[in-house]
Every structure is written in C-alpha cells, then in structure tokens.
Amino acid sequence: MNQTISEKIISQHAGKPVKAGDIAIVKVDGVMATDATSPFAIKAFRAMGGKKVWDKEKVSLVIDHASPAPNEAVANLHKLMREFSSEMGCKLYDIGEGICHQLMIENAHVKPNDLFLGADSHTPTYGAINAFGIGVGSTDLAATMLTGKTWLKVPKTIKIILNGELGKNVTAKDLILFLVKQLGSEGANYQAVEFTGEAITNMTLASRMVLANMSSEMGAKTGLVDPIGLELWYSFEAIKPDKNAEYAHELNFDVSSLRPQIAKPHSPENVVAIDEVLGTKIHYAFIGSCTNTRLEDLHSAAKVLKGKKLCNEVRLVIAPASKKVFNEALKDGTIEILSNAGATFITSGCGPCVGSHLGIPSDGEVVISSANRNFKGRMGNPNALVYLGSPAVVAASALAGEIVEPEK
Amino acid sequence: MFFAAYRNHPLKENKKIFVIAGFDCLRLNQRSILEIKIMKTTNAHVYSTDNIDTDRIIPGKYTKTLDMSLLASHVLEDLDPDFSKKVQVGDILVAGNNFGCGSSREQAPIAIKSAGVSVVVAKTFARIFYRNAINIGLPVIEVENHNIQSGDSISIDLENGIVTNHTKNETYQATKMPKQMMDILSEGGLVNYLVKHGDYS
Question: Was domain A157-254 assigned CATH 3.30.499.10?
Fold first, then answer.
C-alpha cells in the first residue's frame, strides 16, 4: 500500500485498508468533551437511550471553558458533568486541572497511532504525537460514548514540507500563522495536513502541538506532524507515510527567513509580518489557550520580562496550560519572574480565549494574544480588536505598550 | 409564507423524500414512507460574506447553556444584531464560503435551528458545522452558484441537490449529500438514527 499517515491510522481502526474518499466506520480509542460541549453531549447520550458509556476508561470530561463557574447557570452545567462522570465512572478533570488538549496528552489519554474524538475544534492537536485527533460536536461525541465508534470520510492529505531552520525569536506559532495565511481558513477543509521537513526535526513536543493545534484554523480535519525527532516519556512506534503515498497537494516552504507573524483582527488568516503592525498601541496582553501557554511559552515570556515591569497602561493575563505546567513554572522560578513583572495569573483553562470570563476586553480595546482565534467577539466583546502572536511577542508588547518584536 | 410542496423522489426500498419548511421535520409517516419536507419561503436571509465563523453565529459567552431559546435569541448577533427579530419560522439562511468555520460548538446549528431557520444554503460549509447540522437535523445544502437575494422564494430538493428560486424562476445545482449523512438527516438527526439502528451501519 501507498498510504498517508491518515490512511494508515484509519485503516487500523476500520479493520480494513482504506484510501482517501472512502467512508469508514471506525473504532475510537478515546473521547473527550469540555464544559462547552459536554452538557449537550450528555443530553444527546440520554436521548439515545444511553445507560452506560462503552468504555469508562476511554471517556474524559474536562471543566476548562468557564472554570471556575462564573455564574449559577454554568455552575449547574458543571454539576451535571460531575454527576454524569460519577454515574458512568469516567474521568472528570475538575476546575484548575488544565486545558483539555494539554490534559489528554499530558496524562496519556491519547497516544501515538490512536484515533481520538474530542468535542472541541482543536482536537487536531494530537497530531503532534502521531495520533489522529478529530474535532466533533456534542451529538457525534455522544454517539461514540454509546457505541465506541464513529463514521468518517477518509481525508485527502496536504503535505507541507518545511525546509530550513527557524530564526531567533521565530517560533512554531509564527510558522503556523504564516501557513494559515498561505492556505487560508478554508484551505484544508475536509482534508488532513502532514507537516514534515527539516524545520520539524528538532521541534519540542510543545511546538509540535502548536502546529497541529492551529491546523484547525485552515479547516483541516486533522494535522499530523512528522514523528521524526518526537520524544515522549514512554516508548511508542511511530507511523510514517509510505514513500509513494498520494497527496492532494505538496507545498514547500523555506522557513529560514521567516519573520515573527501577527494575525490582525478579525481572522486568524489575516496574517502579516510583524513589521507591518509594529507600534500598534495595545491595552491588554493575554498568554493562554490550548495553543501557547505551555512551559516553553512561559519561559519565553519570562525571558522577555525578567527584572522588568509591564507598561503602566497594559495588563497581562496568563492562564497556564495545566496545573502541572503551573507547578513546574512555580518550581523553576518562572511564575515569580512573571508575577514580579506585573502579570496576573488566572485558573488554568480557556476563559479569555473563548470569551467566557476572567478577562473580557472593553469596547475599543486592543488585545495582543497568544491564542488561536481572533474572530469578532471571540474574546467576549465584538468591539475589541484582537491580534495574535507568539508568547514572546505578547510579552514584549506588554512591556512596550505597543506591538514590538522581542529583543534579539 | 411557505407551503407544503410535496415532490416524490424514488429512493431505494420504495422510500420517498419530501421537504417542507418550518417544522421539525424528517420523520417516518404512518406508511413508513420517509418524509423530508420541501421548503418554500418568501423569506431568504442572505449574508454573502465568506468565513462566517461560529463565534459570529453564536458568541462563546452564550454557549454554556442547554436553553435553546437563549441560543436562538443571540443567533448571529455580532453579524446582524436584528437577525433574531427578523427571522420567521421556515425562513432560509444563505451564506458564502466556509460557513460555520471555527469552533466545534453544536450550539451554532442549534441556535440557527431554534430561531426557526429551516435550511442553510452556503457555497461551502466548514466540516464540523456541516456534520453538526446534520446530526441535529438541520438541513444544509452547498450551492456554489446562485442568484438568491433576501426575500426570494426558495424550495429545496435535498435528495437530488436542486434549489429552485421561484422569484427569479431559476434552478441551481447543489452538491449531493453523502448517503451516510442523508440517512442520518432522514431520521431527523443522529439521536433518532441511533435510537432506531442501535449502532452505525
């Protein structure tokens, strides 16, 4: 067979060889839903006649989107999740444990070669560890909680070959913003993306997660990072594409001269080199989301902010990716550096990224954020302007009060 | 207003598909003949912008709820604050490319359906939105080339992928829905499908 990574993983889960375009019914290795999607999933599961989940070890619920509860309505939804997980015997990550995708990888709910469904659009993140992660809605998730299966169309794959080496202050975030612009927000709709090339080889797990995570901003069904150079804390067998695998497109980029990239309001595809927006006055800086708030991101912010104070007119809000990340950053002194510089830490979770709470911008405010989306209203106020960039750019801009490049 | 324009289309196992606007449709009738309703309305709402994302369909700040009427009252508010007041039961929503991109929130198609919209026509849909819409029983249809304007009277044949504009006396070819999805939609959504079949088949 001449198969892509997607075709290989799906074939394994369909119990027969498949190729792009085939419709397959597949066994699923695990599912996850958040407080934004669990309530409707639980409702649908009950309506389907669900009495118990197909495998309690393979179902995780995560309270991260509005955590801790900002009002009584959300509090009651959290209660519904706690009661459901208790009744089913499945895993519940309660407030403050972290952001769903970080938790799934950190706690090995998803592993290489898995086919995993998440009721969250950033589920492609798991492509960082050679797993096929698909974002679905609540009803699809409920159906899998009941049956352990789902149906899907085997996607065609776009191969993105990244040659060269990223320069100083240029990160996986800059790279993926650049690629989202190149492909457009619909560029990979219904398709998988494979990232490969020498720029990947030395990437950390955290950086690989950034690439895979934001493949959803191109509309991709999933984003698979070449496992070459991937290091995990457990042993695994990597799945590579066959030499003669068939691709819908092959795109080559030399990343050596890439500049830091910024997505301007109101779309993650509205990307420019930072040079075009230098000097844009900002009021609010946010380091958070399932894209960019892991330990290496906090380190890069701390490197910029060490011994300095935020610009008077700017507030910096940080939501670590998980409690584990927070504790590691606490232990190595990163939290102290950031806190002394004036950063405010909030609960590990999604909060401001999705406009739930814990830092909604006011009318007319300009935000620089390390998150993944800047749609109008995304952060809770349609009259705010959100720019996206790397954590280092966010930190440097918080210091300067305007969009700037971190010192070289 | 819309009317019940029944049109027969032979399907396998002697099933027939019909569509009517405005009701929570797609059910088996007493003779076990599959009905999908064919919709006709004088009220198409056209937003030809591309990339209308799920935050614009229903902002994230409203999604943590099981209250359909709350979702309906905020539908599309950052795109057109008056939409939820203008929309009538049975109306259709018409959009450009990549409708529903962004979040996986099923609250997006739920908000649209709960507001009374009977079908969404777009040039293309983002994949999670498309799948969610079918799963909750909201018909969606991809039409690349059309000339639909707000207020036009439209009927839609989902099975054969034909959209008729009665105001302009035109028909447009739509992309046919994969059989798997048509089967789910025909049951009124994935919940009913699984109640009936017990499993994927």
Answer: yes
Could you say which of A74, A149, A219 has the minimum Cβ distance to residue B98? Answer: A219
Convert the pLDDT of each residue in A259-281 to its tens digit.
Answer: 999 999 999 999 999 999 999 99
pLDDT of B64-75, one tens digit each? 999 999 999 999
Residues of A in contact with B98 (CB under 8 A): 185-186, 189, 219
CATH class assigned to A261-400: alpha beta
Yes or no, beta carbons of B64 and A73 under 8 Å apart: yes
Q: Which chain B residues touch A377 with a CB distance below 8 Å?
A: 55-56, 59-60, 78
Task: Tell me the nearest-neighbour CA distance from B178 into chain A, angstroms.
Answer: 9
**Domains along chain B with CATH numbers:** 12-197 (3.20.19.10)
Q: Which residue has the tokens 């809605």?
A: A137
Q: Is A219 on the interface with B (CB under 8 A)?
A: yes
A199-235 pLDDT tens trace: 999 999 999 999 999 999 999 999 999 999 999 999 9
Q: Give the domain ranges of chain A.
A: 22-153, 157-254, 261-400
SS3 of residue A150 by DSSP:
strand
d(CA A350, CA A371): 9
Position B160 scores a pLDDT of 83
- Do A261-400 and A157-254 fall under one CATH topology? yes
What are the E-state strand segments in chain B?
Answer: 27-28, 34-35, 40-41, 44-47, 92-95, 119-122, 140-142, 154-157, 162-165, 170-173
Q: How far is CA A352 from CA A317, A327, A360, in A?
A: 9, 21, 6
What fold, for A22-153?
Aconitase; domain 3 (3.30.499)
Residues of A in contact with B106 (CB under 8 A): 37, 40, 137-139
